[in-house]
Amino acid sequence: MGRLRVTAAKKTKGKKTLTPQEAFAKLWKQVQKEQLLVSQIPEQIQQFYQQYAASIGQQEAQWCRLLADEIRLMLGFWTRKTLHENDRFLLVQYILDNYRELVSNPFCDVDTSELAEAMLSISGPQEAPEPGKKSRNEDMFAEEAAEQELDEDVLGEFFDDAEDDELIEEYARAERQDANELFNATTLNKMFRQLSKVLHPDLEQDETLKQHKHELMAQLLNARDKHDVGTIMALYSEHIGGSGAQFAPEDFPRLTVLLKKQLRALQLEKQEIAYRAGPAGLVYHRFHHKNPARQKTLLMQREAEIASFRRQTQESLRLNTSVKNLKVFLNEWADHNLDMMLMDMIDDF
Fold this sequence. Notes:
71% of the residues lie in helices and 0% in strands. The chain is mainly α.
């Protein structure tokens, strides 16, 4: 047998242990950075949408026009008596799929009102999708929504750095508290009450200053509701004086957890801004990326995808000139989309 070798253990370089004040300051910087990003997103969404519309939007619109032509062609087969029941079922599913695709595309410039009436005649009011209504085929713009994750848990990173078991337990205990309880249990609540007295508009006689204080009071109340540590500290420093130095040592674990909760809320708000921005938000959410190389790849993939869709639609328009050809086409389509069709049927059930 070979002889076992005994080697000295390698020394690992230990991480610097952050104090509660340092952990608070580190997280506060991230919150401030996230607040800046949230304030910039609406303009970024519109700028990106305009760039996308100028470079790819016309290709999207051209494909939508072809798709509308294909739907009209398929609707013409609906009344054919030589179409068997199974073929008719597949025809309806195919038309519905394409119609959903058409009305969910932000760049569709086709008047779909006539198509919408035709959809009711073949599927009934319960099945025909409405223009502008989200559908499963909208995943070309929203498929990454479920894949979005929040940024790295900074407080968890602090736990790894900390060596004091009592300090870790203190943070864990604060994490379990409700945000309102955390707020009320810190000096932050006292700062809020002091600011409320100083900024209350009813205590101001000058009308100009009264309006200004009304705005400041609204900002303060909003900060309290959102447990915005930074805004309350900034208002306190400006209108009363002092900074975070007046916090008691036991405040910092609770304040750090409040900042962590605020950071999570800001990250979720970034996503909500895109969702509320309509078509521009959908395009931004689907194709914008902070990495320029990744964003370029996403846009190139979309262009290739549209080109492929256009070829497929053109081929359908060319081939489907008879019921015989249509039956072959629909059966081939069903073979490729069986799993998706079954999922739709289960959802409907």
